[in-house]
Amino acid sequence: MIAALSASAAAQNAQAPINTFKDLEAALLGCWVPPPTEQSRPGMQITVLMSFNRNGLLFGQPRIAFQSTGTSETERWPYRVAVAEMLKRCASLPFTEALGNAVAGQPVTMTLVDDRDQPP
Fold first, then answer.
1. Which has the closest alpha carbon to 18: 86, 106, 105, 90?
2. Which CATH number fits domain 16-113: 3.30.1150.10, 3.40.50.2300, 1.25.40.20, 3.90.1170.50?
3. What is the rounded distance in angstroms from the CA atom of residue 30 to the CA atom of residue 26?
4. Whole-angstrom distance, CA of residue 88 vs CA of residue 111
5. Residues 23, 3, 90, CA angle at the centre, nearest 5°?
6. For the whole model, what pTM was predicted?
7. 78-107 pLDDT, tens per residue?
8. What parts of the chain have a pLDDT lower than 50?
9. List of residues 6+ apart from 25 with CB closer than 8 A
10. Is 117 helix (H, G, I), strand (E, B) or coil?
């Protein structure tokens, strides 16, 4: 479960306006910090479903739509926490008017893959 997020937890960094879905993905990836390697699982995938309002604020409750199969709760939990922290850091994004109008209230999914090299 992803903890409730508030607009007050918005990312504080000044960012360039986000005008496309590719820009949105890049902004969210910029907020993504995977779990520490000792808590990670090579190839782990997690998909989050979220919505934004036209001003770039998270709208509603984000949820995990998918996690890699064959993983334990212990392996999944650090990734859920990392997604929640990503969304806190990116709780408010500088959408352009055009992108804001296009995505307002619409479901957006993003799949994150832990493809870091694992130490031997």
1. 90
2. 3.30.1150.10
3. 6
4. 17
5. 20
6. 0.81
7. 999 999 999 999 889 999 999 999 999 999
8. 1-13
9. 110
10. coil
